[in-house]
Amino acid sequence: QVQLVESGGGTVQAGGSLRLSCAASRFPFSATTMSWSRQPPGIGNEVVSIIHSSGGSAYDADAVKGRFTTSRDNIKNMLYLEMNNLKPEDTAVYYCKKSYGTEAKDRGQGIQVTVSS
User: Fold this and answer.
1) Distance (Å, rounded) from C-alpha 99 to C-alpha 53?
2) How many Å apart are CA 110 and CA 61, to the nearest integer?
3) Most buried residue among 25, 45, 52, 114 by CB atoms closer than 10 A?
4) Residues 26, 110, 72, 52: is their CA dihedral positive or negative?
5) How confident is the model at residue 114 (pLDDT cuts 50, 70, 90)?
6) pLDDT for residue 11
7) pLDDT at 32
8) How far apart are CA 9 and CA 45, in angstroms?
9) DSSP secondary structure string for all residues of 40-100
10) Residue 61: which of 31, 42, 40 has the closest Cα?
11) Cβ atoms within 10 A of the Cβ of 46, count?
């Protein structure tokens, strides 16, 4: 069974930065496309970024382009989301996910990111 555990969330002021990490196990991480998605309060889940197994970017949402960077370490089986210049509208529960999409299958438990104005 896929296991994904996010860490690094919290509360930050607008303009600040956070780095989310996701520890992956129980599947061939280095051969798997991965993604980050988020669910703002009262809104549906949306894909934030997708990263190829090789580490190349496949997709970044317009709302985060130039501010968020997705990376991975295929030796450590880790996925990262570096978030800079955070805005209040980035407030959401963030999920790392095996493959990509908005369904709940094969994703972590989620971690809260709150950006105060």
Assistant:
1) 10
2) 19
3) 45
4) positive
5) very high
6) 98
7) 98
8) 17
9) -TTS--EEEEEE-TTS-EEEE-TTTTTTEEEEEETTTTEEEEEE-S--GGG-EEEEEEES-
10) 40
11) 13
